Amino acid sequence: MKSMATRRKVIQRMMEGAVFMGTGGLIWGKAIQTTTKADYVLRPPGALKEKNFLKACIKCGQCVEACPYDTLKLAEPGDGIANGTPYFEPRSIPCYLCTDMPCTDSCPSGALDLKLLTKEEKPADINNAKMGLAVIHKESCLAYWGIRCEACYRACPLIDKAITLDYEVNKRTGMHAKLLPIVHSDVCTGCGVCEQSCIAEKAAIFVLPLDKSTGEVGDHYIKGWEKKDENRINDDVKKVDDEKDVESAIDYLNDNDLIDD
Amino acid sequence: MRKYKFLILRRIIQLSILFLFVAGNYFGWELLRGNYSSAIIVDSLHLSDPYAILQILASGFLASSSVLIGALIILLIYVLVGGRMFCSWICPMNIITDLAFRLRRMFKIETEVRISLPRNFRYYILALSLIVSAVFGLAAFEIISPISMLHRAIVFGSGAGWAIVAVVFLIDLFILKAGWCGHICPLGGFYSLVGKQAVIKVKHDKDNCTNCMACFDVCIEEPVLSIVGKESDFIRSGACTNCARCIEVCDDNALKYALKFDLKK
Description:
The complex is a heterodimer.
Chain A: H1 2-36, H2 50-56, H3 62-66, E1 73-74, E2 86-87, H4 102-106, E3 133-136, H5 142-145, H6 151-155, E4 163-170, E5 176-183, H7 193-197, E6 205-208, H8 210-213, H9 227-239, H10 243-250, H11 257-260
Antiparallel strand pairs in A: 1-2, 3-6, 4-5
Chain B: H1 5-26, E1 32-34, E2 38-41, E3 45-48, H2 50-58, H3 65-82, H4 85-90, H5 93-106, H6 121-136, H7 140-144, H8 146-155, H9 161-175, H10 179-184, H11 186-194, E4 200-204, H12 214-218, E5 233-234, H13 245-249, E6 255-259
Antiparallel strand pairs in B: 1-2, 2-3, 4-5, 4-6
Helix pairs in contact in B: 2-6, 5-9, 6-11, 8-9
């Protein structure tokens, strides 16, 4: 009888443990998920993709200490950003693109990686940073009203590359030009100097994280006028094994059967 | 004064390390930069919190070799030499919880809200933190750790972290005696497990003991003192933080620091 009693106790203990672990784990997990679900957060240059960055960041703040402009901050409870991870708000202090990349270089854990600032086997270059992408809200941009501004264009550390000016006739007056800032997403680093420089009360040009500011066409549209993109057809065709399928797939719109069906 | 020599030494070490971190951030001193999660000494040697690294690995990210080696160095120091000394000699939260512990004794605050947690609760938290890290892909304890919030609040001057530190203080003061360090903290649990066989231990001499129970009164991990007055031996439990409060309060020379080299036992 005694052994039955102890066995019952052991089983009860195990059940209690399982319930504690299960509910505790779920609450814990949900709690950390809500703290990391920030829609808008800009990370230092060379940061891994957000999901991996959150795994890798050890929250030591060495990047924050390395930053000479006090751009980077560590998230506190209540900021809505994963506690202790570094971020910056360009409207108050943007990233000034230090050429020696002290923040990225200081990261011990690999959450910030100099390799992500390298292109084509050249040494790491801060201008390869992709912290986000500047986006313009035309309706609140004075330049688009037809008033000459150029503040963001002049401030941009990659002037005439990341932001260029387009000239357009001002149809309202019929005699002036509009000098319109245009952001080039292939060059823009997301440093946010433009956002800080914008003279509007609430910045008309602002940096958004890449996943919030970029679209994706998908593989099935091809720029037929670009040789390199055009080649993708041939590459894709090679991947298909069945020759017949390829022909029918390419020519299916020319196939009369389509109408009959 | 002699009664507090280890306490004073501990506070000097704790506050010096804290000061060096603060100086690293505010004055750019290079002696010690970063914080208790990961630090760099004189711009050359990385040191990391092995428990934090364990969570990062559990979350599915292979951390860089510099932090892995840094964590290994720290781990070896505590496994071989220090045991759970991090908790009482380094951790800044210890200053807060010791204060709560002392105030509790001074004002005879008895637990009114009756919450009893088993001492091994922290090992469940420890196991759970690794499971949650793996399932949710994020170092689970690091996100909510009051210790990290405390040292970040001090080193980086943030304000919001103090709220959770206050919660820990109040729990320790009014709800559960030695609640945080003695029952909940998984980092303490981690060092309790890995530091069990370390060399530095407190040694008890039964023949000198008068059963005055002064040591039980000051110990935040009183179960580790179970042999006191019964047999002469090392305090073998890994939960002992080597804080030496028992050594200080003992008027009978029945407790002292000693080195334990018998790995077989």
